[in-house]
Design brief:
heterodimer; A: alpha+beta; six-stranded mixed β-sheet; 19 strands; elongated; B: MetI-like fold; 74% helix; 0% strand; disordered C terminus
Chain lengths: 355, 275
């Protein structure tokens, strides 16, 4: 149990900054998820916390005490790796006991803790097996078990589910969430999958290009993205972006010629070029704000994705219900409900709606 | 019809290779069982077989002692080479330091020099260390050709081991020594068996250093002992004894290869596919 604080943490590899000046606090018992596209520095940041990489700048504190100078094993962390990294020549029991034996715990103590962890994860019947005799999901459990037995202050997960198939991933996601509730340990989890991030996180940290773009609860990030990157990254399918011009009176001019009153537009001067963002699930088909044509209709059963081409050549995706009668090639009117519209200035920063 | 012909061709090829590889040894076995003037008659089957030569080899010189010497030197060479190579491979494969490539290239370049070129320098070194005419001296000199390839092979294998495995061990509180001995060593067993066997064979067969760095019959290894076998007179070569001795020293190698065969294949195949 620990609060993890990063102060101005940076990491350089040669001439490139993998992590730039990250300031962040993960509260005790919190489930924090680092999410971002590949190469954004999220894994490096996790490895800095683990102690597998040394920070070039900044401080790392657990419960207010500096730990940057400590070896990984002395920090009280446990890590679950993407490839599981189980010791192939050891049985499941030995895999889980390996770290405990290094701590000098006696045999009964080791056995008790391994058995307890195996019961929690329902792998007690696998203790005598070697990793190669296990399925992917079982290996994942063993890897988590190896982390649990250490009774760490902070759990670190490095994309632990990306090697599993889709069905198992959903199941393990639920189990990890349940585990967090049961153990109440601080967890830091890295993923590139924003659905995983949304479902697991108490707090999400969106990273891009080595820097923190936004930190907040999943729904905060969804509803109030601070910039265009976060808006585009969170949510699937992606948010639509349309080029608009501020009218200066709380409205924006759409490319089709219409005017749309958007609360946040009050912050922009007249004539300023802006980007209007709207999520596919908020687009209303059959509205009158824009004219377009359905070019492709994807039917997913529970929902339908309609890809539209607008009069000015821009594209727009709309998500609607599964029973929608829309057909490809059909002309369609599109409605953009103002409360669901986000505005971004030329630098990509969101314009905040006045209270 | 064509398939039969193709199979026949294949088997003929296999037979040719087997004859080429095994016939000299077979002929040595046949000859070792003959005595007297029979030695100079060309026979393809053992006629009037006798074990007299085998007994004579051990009676006329300390051949048993020579075999023990060879085994001792080869075992020592293998043990020290593997231990050093394992440590070196960890450094070369896992620790990033300046000049790592240069170091690996210079280790490899050691094996470029012919033995004769380093012979006199090595002689001075062995003498200077007081190891002349001793088995550890021989083992030391053999490392000049065993270490380059053991280090290279083990470095290559260790590079193939996933980095996350080492990191998991580090998080588990293992230091470099524990990582090497408890995590890497068991995984490298096939590679160790393969390189250890090659080193053993090289040390077992070595002649030039063994001839130069030993003086007395009691310290000689088998290849030298065989070469220096002499008959009753200066003009007589004891072919029967030489053949018997050659057969005796070949048997341990064949036995070793058979014992480690599966491990060697595993060692050669490992790394080809990720496990």
């Amino acid at each position: 149990m620990a609060e993890v604080t990063l102060k101005g943490v940076g990491k350089r590899f040669g001439a490139t900054d993998a992590v730039k000046d990250v300031n962040l606090t993960v509260a005790d018992r919190e489930f924090a998820v680092f999410v971002g596209p590949s190469g954004c520095g999220k894994s490096t940041l996790l490895r800095l916390i683990a102690g597998l990489e040394e920070a070039s700048t900044g401080e790392l504190l657990f419960d207010g005490q500096r730990v940057d100078h400590l070896a990984p094993a002395r920090r009280g962390i446990a890590m679950v790796f993407q490839s599981y990294a189980l010791y192939p020549h050891m049985t499941v029991y030995d895999n889980m006991a390996f770290g405990l034996r290094r701590t000098g715990l006696d045999r009964q103590g080791v056995e008790k803790r391994v058995k307890a962890a195996a019961d929690t994860l329902q792998i007690a019947h696998l203790l005598d097996r070697k990793p190669k005799a296990l399925s992917g999901g079982q290996r994942q459990r063993v890897a988590i078990g190896r982390a649990i037995v250490r009774e760490p202050r902070v759990f670190l997960f490095d994309e632990p589910l990306s090697n599993l198939d889709a069905a198992l991933r959903v199941q393990m996601r639920v189990e990890i969430k349940r585990l967090h509730a049961a153990l109440g340990t601080t967890m830091v989890y890295v993923t590139h999958d924003q659905v995983e991030a949304m479902t697991l996180a108490d707090r999400m940290v969106v990273l891009n290009d080595g820097a923190v773009e936004q930190v907040g609860a999943p729904l905060d990030l969804y509803h109030r993205p601070r910039n265009r990157f976060v808006a585009g990254f969170i949510g699937s399918p992606r948010m639509n972006f349309l080029d608009v011009t501020a009218g200066g009176d709380g409205t924006v001019a759409l490319a089709g010629g219409g005017w749309l009153p958007v609360p946040a537009a009050e912050r922009a001067a007249g004539g300023q070029p802006l980007a209007l963002g709207i999520r596919p699930e908020h687009v209303v088909l059959g509205g009158s704000d824009l004219e377009g044509r359905a070019v492709l209709v994807e039917r997913l059963g529970g929902g339908t994705l309609v890809h539209l081409e607008l009069a000015d050549g821009a594209t727009l995706t709309a998500a609607t219900d599964g029973a929608s009668p829309v057909r490809g090639g059909e002309p369609l009117g599109v409605g953009l409900p103002p409360p669901s519209c986000h505005l971004f200035d030329g630098a990509g920063l969101a314009l905040e709606a006045p209270p | 019809m064509r398939r039969t012909a193709a199979r026949l061709g294949l088997w003929l090829l296999v037979a040719a290779i087997v004859v080429f590889a095994v016939f000299p040894f077979y002929y040595a076995v046949v000859t070792s069982l003959k005595t007297g003037s029979g030695l100079f008659r060309v026979d393809y089957w053992p006629i009037d077989a006798t074990l007299a030569n085998y007994l004579a080899v051990f009676r006329e010189q300390p051949f048993g002692r020579n075999i023990l010497n060879s085994m001792g030197v080869a075992a020592l060479t293998v043990a020290v080479s593997l231990a050093l190579a394992l440590a070196a491979a960890y450094a070369c494969a896992r620790v990033a330091f300046r000049g790592r490539g240069l170091l690996l290239m210079s280790i490899l370049s050691v094996s470029m020099f012919p033995q004769v070129a380093v012979l006199s320098g090595m002689f001075e070194l062995i003498r200077g260390l007081g190891l002349y005419n001793s088995l550890p001296g021989l083992a030391l000199s053999y490392m000049i050709f065993t270490l380059p390839f053991t280090v290279w092979v083990l470095t290559t294998f260790m590079r193939e081991l996933p980095k996350e495995l080492e990191e998991a061990a580090i998080v588990d509180g293992a230091g470099p020594w524990t990582v090497v001995t408890r995590v890497f060593l068991p995984l490298l067993a096939p590679a160790l068996a393969a390189t250890g066997l090659l080193a053993f064979i090289a040390a077992w067969n070595e002649f030039l250093f063994a001839l130069t760095f030993t003086l007395s019959n009691e310290q000689r290894t088998v290849p030298v002992a065989i070469a220096l076998m002499s008959g009753a007179s200066r003009h007589e070569l004891p072919w029967g004894n030489i053949m018997a001795a050659s057969v005796i020293v070949t048997v341990p190698l064949i036995a070793l290869v058979l014992v480690f065969q599966r491990r060697i294949v595993a060692g050669l195949a490992a790394g080809a596919v990720k496990g």
